[in-house]
Amino acid sequence: MKHLLSAADLGYDDAILILDTAKQLAAATEQGVGKLPPLRGRTVVNLFYEDSTRTRISFEAAAKRLSADVINFSAKGSSVSKGESLKDTALTLEAMGADAVVIRHNSSGAPHRLANAGWISGGVVNAGDGTHEHPTQALLDAFTLRNHLRNGDGDLKGVNVTIVGDVLHSRVARSNVLLLNTLGAKVRLVAPPTLLPYGIEDWDCEVSYDLDASLEGSDAVMMLRVQRERMNAAYFPNAHEYSSRYGLNVTRMNRLAESAIVMHPGPMNRGMEISADVADSDRSVIVEQVANGVSVRMAVLYLILGGSESK
Ligand code: NCD
Fold first, then answer.
1. CATH classification at residue 54
2. Signed CA dihedral, 264, 270, 275, 277: sign only
3. What is the tens place of the pLDDT at every residue in 91-122?
4. How many domains is the chain partitioned into structurally?
5. pLDDT computed for residue 272 by the predictor
6. How far is CA 74 from CA 31, 126, 220, in A?
7. What is 96-124 written as a DSSP string?
8. Which end of the chain, N or C, is surrounded by fewer C-beta atoms within 10 Å?
9. Which pLDDT tens digit goes with each residue over 249-298?
10. Cross-strand bridge partners of residue 275
11. Domain assignment of residue 169, given as a range
12. Do 93 and 37 share a structural domain?
């Protein structure tokens, strides 16, 4: 694996390999072995053009646990605010010897450009591009689902995952639909018609406008953040109306099967798409998702950088 740009790049065997590698790395972390040596002497750059808490910290923790040197670059406070292009930034990173670049960008397709333009020779990992994709989020979600619903092994054949909310602006939803299908899960998207993207009928999943009708039979419910920062129009009447139709509250949660889990990629709008008591309930695996993010990103960096000797 040279890059990870899209969840669609991962075939069944690739996806299972990443999940199994993450499982081993998580076990090593749990045993308290401290830092693992495989990426010693390698440099990982976190190139973040968009705000992030979990993803950036998680990639940093992952790279450091594998003994890589980590450079954190955020567009705010860099020469990007002086108008420097992605190309010139990439050439600078190349000159400094980056072995892998983890990029988050507000433009869909930026990681593909970085990987394919020939500006850098290292691997590229998409950490979220615009409203397009977020493959490592889908991997950590699959890892979490597998732990809870499949005892941490194999694939997700027959698992019913319901993804609810602002699908229109969500790179998490797109990457999840792709990867979950690869792993054999059945996906249903639930959203108001205004928050579904154009062309949704071509996605490999069911679509519903009715959350209440979609709870029964769900093994996992993944709530998406309402992404106000990407909204340039009114997509629903008001927050109250949205949460009464599409928010996960305790009444709705109690209608889920006993074994069903509640997920959210974060950051949450508590009281909007998810109520605080649901977010903090036993069903919620939201904090676990964050922890799993580190293991999955360790696996991705390990597999991309090959764990080989430094250049
Ligand atoms: C998501 C993202 O940035 O795409 N968050 C994350 O990476 N954990 C989802 C979101 O912003 O709502």
1. 3.40.50.1370
2. positive
3. 999 999 999 999 999 999 999 999 999 999 99
4. 2
5. 95
6. 33, 15, 34
7. TT-SEEEEEESSTTHHHHHHHSSS--SEE
8. C
9. 999 999 999 999 999 999 999 999 999 999 999 999 999 999 999 999 99
10. none
11. 135-285
12. yes
List, in order, residues 6 or more apart from 9 with CB less than 8 Å away: 3, 135
Of ligand 1's listed atoms, the one at least distance from the Cα of 265 is 8
In a domain, 310, yes or no: no
Tokens describing residue 54: 């979990």
**Residue ID of nearest Cα to ligand 1 atom 7:** 55
Helical spans, DSSP H, in 120-238: 135-149, 171-182
Work out which ligand 1 atom sits closest to the CA atom of 128.
Answer: 4
Query: Model pTM greater than 0.90?
Result: yes
Question: Exposed, middle or buried by CB within 10 Å (0-12, 13-18, 19+), for 254?
Answer: exposed
> Three-class SS of residue 43?
strand
Type of residue found at 117: A
CB of 137 within 6 A of ligand 1: the answer is: yes
| Residue 212 DSSP label | G
